Automatic annotation (TrEMBL):
Signal peptide: none annotated. It comes from Rotaria socialis. GO terms for biological process: protein transport; ribosomal large subunit biogenesis; ribosomal large subunit export from nucleus. It comes from the Eukaryota. This is Protein SDA1.
Length: 167
């Protein structure tokens, strides 16, 4: 059902479905976590700085080690496991799905960002399932011009879609 939303005529629905399959919503959560990691690193710096200043005694050394261990425990508690098993693995008949999505991409007149999202999804799908979608590579080659916006992303998509079975 979610796979069928990729073919919706409503652009916002398409983008939401593609973001779901690409796990783009997880990246926003990770950015928030990285900000809190910076704060924890600062407290670790403060702990080590406190040990650096003053007389070095075994008691202070043990206190510093205990504080660092407590900080590491807090980090482990806050860390949430993210599974690397995406919804792309669970698609039924990935070859047919990729062909239909590529036909939609070729005939679409959406904004460039939406086309990039389609290309990203297709390249990951092709690379993951080792699909043969031979018209995809010449399609991407059209966008590999020096003046093209986001040309490095398009190069990334070509690399993602490459596998052993591609001639």
């Amino acid at each position: 059902i979610i796979a069928s939303t990729c073919f919706s005529k409503i652009t916002k629905v398409q983008v939401a479905a593609l973001n779901f399959f690409l796990c783009n919503n997880l990246n926003k959560d990770n950015d928030k976590d990285s900000d809190s990691d910076d704060d924890e690193k600062l407290t670790k710096k403060d702990i080590l700085l406190g040990h650096r200043v003053g007389k070095k005694t075994s008691k202070r050394k043990k206190q510093t080690e205990r504080a660092l261990k407590a900080l590491e425990k807090q980090k482990k508690k806050k860390k949430v496991e993210i599974f690397d098993y995406s919804a792309l693995h669970l698609l039924y008949d990935a070859q047919d799905f990729a062909e239909r999505l590529f036909r939609q991409l070729e005939s679409s007149n959406e904004r460039f960002e939406v086309k990039l999202l389609h290309q990203d999804f297709l390249s990951r799908l092709i690379g993951l399932h080792q699909l043969l979608l031979l018209n995809f590579y010449p399609y991407l080659q059209r966008y590999l011009q020096p003046h093209q916006r986001q040309v490095t992303k398009i190069l990334l998509y070509v690399a993602q879609a490459s596998h052993e079975l591609v001639p």
